[in-house]
Amino acid sequence: MVELHDIVQRLRLGHSVKAIHRQTGRHKTVIRAIRDLAGREGWLSAACEVPSEGEIARLYEQTLGASRQAAHPLEAYDEQIQEWLRNKYSFQIIHRLLNQMGVTESESTVRRWIHHRHPQLPSPVILRATTPGEVMEVDFGYLGVYWDRQSERQRKVWFFSGRLRHSRRVYREIAFDQTQGTFFRCHIHAFEFFGGVPKSVVADNLKAAIVRASYENPLVNRGYRSLAEHYGFLISACPPFSPELKGGVENDVKYVKRNFLPLFVEGQKQRGHTPGLVEELIQELDRWNAEVCDTHIVQKVGRSPLEIFEQEEVAALQPLPPSRWDPVIYKETSVGPDWRVQFQKAFYSVPYRLIGQRVLVMGNSTTVRVYLGGEEITMHLRATRDWQYAWKAEQPGHVHPGAAHLGLTAGAFGTAACAAHLCRQGRRRTASGAGTDALGRTLRQGSPGGCLPPQSALRTG
Fold first, then answer.
1. How far apart are CA 198 and CA 315, in angstroms?
2. What range does the domain containing 95 cover?
3. What is the pLDDT of residues 51-104, one digit of tens each?
4. Residue 137 forms beta bridges with which residues?
5. Are residue 99 and residue 164 in the same domain, yes or no?
6. Cis peptide bond upstream of 275, omega within 30
7. What is the pLDDT of residue 58?
8. Are residues 364 and 305 located together in one domain of the fold?
9. Is residue 323 a part of any domain in this protein?
10. CB neighbour list of residue 249: distance below 8 Å, 6 or more residues apart
């Protein structure tokens, strides 16, 4: 960089500001400031000696300091801008909010003023090569509490983000929880949105995906593995405490919170909705995805995520399978003393010899299967209502020998065992006399001839 001393020398030789700018590359504003300073100090006279570089720089800084004392138009909003910066609002959001307050400064002016007034050190960025159709990163981001008109209550709201690493195109979906069912359903919707399946999915260590996080041997959720096998993608578990390995989707969560959420929240406040409405959140997020995210130009790439996706990535994705995956839920549980297992608000019988043992229950939309040591023990049709008792009297071992001794059919014995469970669950009510009649009716309806079975049936259950 040309020193200020050299600019003074060129000015003494009669060079114009434009000529010095062309020769040295220094900004014309700087050259004009040095020219004005040299004129006031008499340095342009041949009889005056040019001071040292340090002296020129000192006087130049003093001149700049005096000029900066004039109030900038954004100074009046400094306190509000600081609050927005603490909330991590982006420059685009701050510029839009200032425009709504009547400020006419351009976004670049706002950006420069904030950088000068509130400088921050840039965060380091690691660039990595990407391959079309290779990786999708997934994660959840928390958006806050909103009012759900359908359930007529306030609900916590998250959003699912599935981001293709190469094209940077993202599928987003509003969710009320982070359960296995929601996590799996969002994957299916993402694949159908993209029209294909990536070769691998990088998942965070939430329980719906990874049962146990580990650097060397992570334990993948069985249901997630079943989903991956159906759609043909590999599961890449993110190592513990290493969010940078899925930095794309991590940044997408921040991007939504900084660029979409503030505008939506402020808009809801102006309309008198505090908290905001879930249905409008869903509509606005979908509109923002299509009109802003898919079409914005990626810096240093010169194309939008949608253009990159259509030109390079969509053809590299694996085709969708002929049918949707039927969600599978796994659960490890113990066989109760009434030789049945509970799975998602229903009961299913197993051979009574398994009482007290740990078994694996696998359920989809139509069936429930029970495994012991990798071997299938029994299979039931899925219960059609909550707390239904599925009993397979035709299978060996599902009817205890005590049933014949008690004079009960298999169905009646199952009813007795179910009633015994209700009795155990409601001991306090039964002890006070409440609920006894209902229990008796339950037993009599399932007993031969309407006779109440002996108390040993309850003890057996």
1. 11
2. 77-117
3. 888 888 888 787 766 555 556 788 889 899 999 988 889 888 999 999 999 888
4. 163, 202
5. no
6. yes
7. 83
8. no
9. no
10. 137, 138, 139, 161, 162, 163, 202
